Amino acid sequence: MARKKFIAGNWKMNTTLEEAKALARGVVDAVGNISDVDIAVCPPYTNLSAVYEIIKDSNVKLGAQDVHWEAKGAFTGKVSCAMLKSVGVTYVIIGHSEQRQYFGETDATVNKKVKAARGSGLLPIICVGETLEERKSGKMDAVIERQVRGAFDGLSTEDALKCTIAYEPVWAIGTGETATPEQANDAHVFIRGIISKMFSDETAGAIRIQYGGSMKPDNAKELLSKNDVDGGLIGGASLKAADFAGIVKPV
Ligand code: 13P
Question: pTM for the full model?
Answer without folding.
Answer: 0.98
